[in-house]
Please model this.
Amino acid sequence: MPEFLAALWRSGTIVNDPWFYAVAVPAVLMTGLAKSGFASGFGSLAVPLLALTMPVPQAAAILLPLLLVMDATGLQQLWADRDRALVRRLVPWGLAGIGVGWVGFGLLSAKAVAGIVGAMTLAFLAQRLLFKPRADGRPPRAWLGPACATAAGFTSFVAHAGGPPISAYTLPLKLNPRVLSATLAVFFAAVNLAKWGPYAMLGLIDLRNMATSVLLMPLAPLGVWLGVRLLGRMRPVVFYRVAYTGMLLTGLKLLWDGLR
Model:
């Protein structure tokens, strides 16, 4: 270990628990893949994984700068492919969800939010399995977009778990995988940027958390870059299978965390 990192480790300026890094490295790479759209849904597992070694609010604070780097990388790769109308429809409601999460931050425990998100995710997948969409089927109802975007903003604020709620609305739209990934990249870039002020006011932005984020920073764009490359080589049917698998595993993990 370089001397300056060793000094930071000894002083406690960065998180100095080896088990934290054992889960943080795969969690950050997994989140980067999810940000690209390649492994959509898996990104919501990052905070539950980090929560094995630290409190959920601290895990969320450490991940926030990394999410912004991933957002910037994803936007650079996908910006031109976004669905502009869908972005205009969803982003304001996502920001409203941030406000709800901020106000209600102390009312619900992170475990309660995890359980709610997990149950919502599994209910959506069950509905898709029992009532398979037809080619001539109707698109999702208009009210579902604002509802899912608000829920995504709320769960994203509390546990960076906004993927499953917003996917419940966007996946049935059957957009081109790259268009869907680009649209969600813009949505979550706006949502994550809006978290900074509330997180700072809640005391989550401190030197130790931010220094740990900087140490993990090189992994953030790497995961997104790999995901975008894989996304361009994947057939739409495979893309959606991966997305639904990610939602299934995420839903089971979050529900388990909420019920423990």
Observations:
- Residues 3-259 form one domain.
